[in-house]
Structure formats: structure tokens, C-alpha cells
Amino acid sequence: MTAELATIVDLIRYAASRFSAAGLTFGHSHDNAIDEASHLVLSSLHLPPDLPPAYGNARLTAAEKAGVLALVERRIETREPVAYLVGEAWFAGLPFKSDPRALVPRSPIAELIEDGFSPWLDGREVARALDLCTGSGCIGIAMAAHNPAWRVDLADISDDALALARENIALHQLGDRVRAVHSDLFAGLRGERYDLVVSNPPYVTDAEYAVLPGEYAHEPKLGLAAGADGLDIALRILRDAPEHLADAGVLIVEVGESEHALAALLPDVPFVWIEFKVGPMGVFALERRDLVEHVAAIRAAASR
Ligand SMILES: C[S@@+](CC[C@H](N)C(=O)[O-])C[C@H]1O[C@@H](n2cnc3c(N)ncnc32)[C@H](O)[C@@H]1O
User: Fold this and answer.
1) Which of 224, 226, 302 has the alpha carbon at shortest distance from 265?
2) What is d(CA 244, CA 154) in angstroms, rounded to the nearest whole number?
3) Kindly report the CA angle at 49 between 129 and 119, in degrees rounded to 5?
4) Distance separating alpha carbons of residues 275 and 194, to the nearest angstrom
5) How would you class 172 by CB atoms within 10 Å of its CB: exposed for 0-12, middle for 13-18, buried for 19 or more?
6) CB 81, CB 140: distance < 8 Å
7) Would the CB of 247 count as within 6 Å of ligand 1?
8) Which band of pLDDT confidence, cut at 50, 70 and 90, is reported for residue 34?
9) Are the CB atoms for 104 and 98 separated by under 8 Å?
10) Most exposed among 3, 68, 137, 289, judged by the fewest C-beta atoms under 10 Å?
11) Given the DSSP bridges, would you call strands 272-276 and 94-97 parallel, antiparallel or unpaired?
């Protein structure tokens, strides 16, 4: 049935057709069957995502083809995200090890990193930055890779996630400027202050979590679920961030669809909802002084 398939392009086209016909969900790194299929085929053949098109006509060996086809079937049967199947995801133009110890890297914050956090950091000196709720380490490691003068801490409560983050620090040879710290939000970072704190914390509501497609069941629940309105973690970050931001420091946090609940809960806080190339993505920026000014309302919300 697959005897006609010979080239890289053949395999990508076949995988995409199978994925679409099987009704898979694409929410981990990709939003369509072709990109999902390209990731699976190219990564499993140890080829880069920006492979020059001429190589698309290259033929696979029988063993390579059997390996790719087995992964295509596994993707459909188990619903495992492609990044876990091939052990690799790309984020902010960089490769990261990816496996079920942490969420698949996919935050829109990649775009901010690639754009130098402009205009949020324009004219500000950054010496130290924190990636809070780091998972695989993708955000903090990409920040360090794109900014050779920054020292970056990665914090997470999950030992599994930190182990993967450390492997990614080693992959990028950034051990001299990036460290992974076990911490329940800021609790393990007493006395530390940062010019920039970036976080993609869990923000899925309990109700949303209960009906997520099968792909998400392969990711750690600790990385997704965040209470009845999805704000359990984000509110604690808002409450404690002033202690850990430099006077001119900036906080950037992704809350996804929970943006609306957050804006309704704290109507006077001047959240700046960042516009991405594809539109708003539920990511806000706030300056330390705004957090300090609204500390009473934030504390009240966090202690609901
Ligand atoms: C949405 S994932 C994001 C991972 C990574 N930043 C990314 O963008 O792919 C959230 C991460 O927060 C971590 N986490 C959950 N509760 C935490 C807490 N109280 N303190 C620190 N990290 C926490 C989880 O272990 C998970 O790795």
C-alpha cells in the first residue's frame, strides 16, 4: 500500500494525509498537518527543518522508510505529540530535546525573544533574567542564546522538567551563564533580583483540562492545569514578582485564554496585552512600578 512512496516529499505528503484523515489535533508546535508531517519526517531522518527544497526529491533507504512509517502509525494510534516521538522540538530558531518530562515547547514568547523583546526592553539594560516555570528550559535558554551578555536562571518545581532543562543547557553549551533551580515559583529564589522575568506558567482551567484532546494527556498535568479559572499560578507570580524585579524591571507572562478572567479580576491593573504577528496570544507585559502600585488588589485576588 505504501510501495509507491519513495522520496522525502512523498513521505511528508503521505503522513499529512494520514494525520488529516485520522482527525489528529495539532497544537504542539504546529497548527496544520503538513508542518506536523514535515517535523516528523525531517527530524526522524536527522535533517534540519529548513532543508533546501531540492532535497525533497531525495529517496529514502528501505530502513529509513520503515522507521518513518512506524512513527506515522504511532502518532495516529497513541496521539503522542511529534516532538516526543522524535525527541526534538524547534523553538526561537533553536533545537531542544523534548520528551514527556516537560511540555512541548510552543510558546508565542519565541517571537518576542527573536525580536529582542522590542519595544518592551528598548533602552533597558538586562544583566540577569529569569525564566519561571521553565519546563524544558526553552524560553530561558533561547533568551541566553540570543543575548550573549545575559545571565539567565531557569526555575521549575518539577525535578523531571529540571533534568530535561539541564540537558538542554548542556546541548547549547550555556552552563557558564544559565542555571536551573528547583523552586516553587519564587520560593527558592530568595534575595534574587532580575531585570526581566518571563513566564509561561500553567494556565488551563480545570474544565478545559477535562476536555483537552488526547495529545495533551501525554504532557505533565503539572504544566497545564491551574485551577477553576486558570489563574492559580499567574496570580501568585503577580503577587511575588516585585520582590524579585529590579526597580526598572519588566514582567512578561503568558496566560492564554485566561486573559479575560485576569483582566476582569484586576480591572485597574494596566496589563499591556502584547500583539503578535498572528494577533493577541494572551501574553502581558507589566513594569515593576505598576505591580507595586496595585499590590493591594493583586494580593486580595491571589488570596481568594
Ligand atoms: C506551561 S509549562 C511551560 C514550560 C516552558 N516554559 C515552555 O514554555 O514550554 C509550565 C511549567 O510550570 C511548572 N510549574 C507548575 N507549577 C509550578 C510552581 N508552583 N513553581 C514552579 N514551576 C511550576 C511545570 O512543572 C511546567 O514545567
Assistant:
1) 302
2) 14
3) 35
4) 24
5) middle
6) no
7) no
8) very high
9) yes
10) 3
11) unpaired
pTM: 0.97
219 closest CA partner among 245, 244, 200, 194: 200
pLDDT band at 123 (very low <50, low <70, confident <90, very high): confident
Other CB atoms within 10 Å distance of the CB of residue 293 = 15
Mutate to test the pocket of ligand 1, among 157, 240, 244 (most ligand atoms within 8 A of CB): 157
170 dihedral zone (left: phi>0; alpha: psi -120 to 50; beta): alpha
Domain spanning 91-302, CATH class: alpha beta
* Residue whose grid cell is 518592551: 120
pLDDT of 146 strictly over 90: yes
DSSP, collapsed to helix, strand or coil, labels residue 90 as strand
**Are 114 and 146 within 8 A, CB to CB?**
yes
- Does the C-beta of 272 come closer than 6 Å to ligand 1? no
- Residue corresponding to grid cell 522590542: 118
Return the CATH number of the domain spanning residue range 8-86: 1.10.8
Ligand 1 centre to CA of 176 (Å) is: 23
- What three-state secondary structure class fits 179? strand
Domain ranges of the chain: 8-86, 91-302
Confidence of residue 304 (pLDDT cuts 50, 70, 90): confident
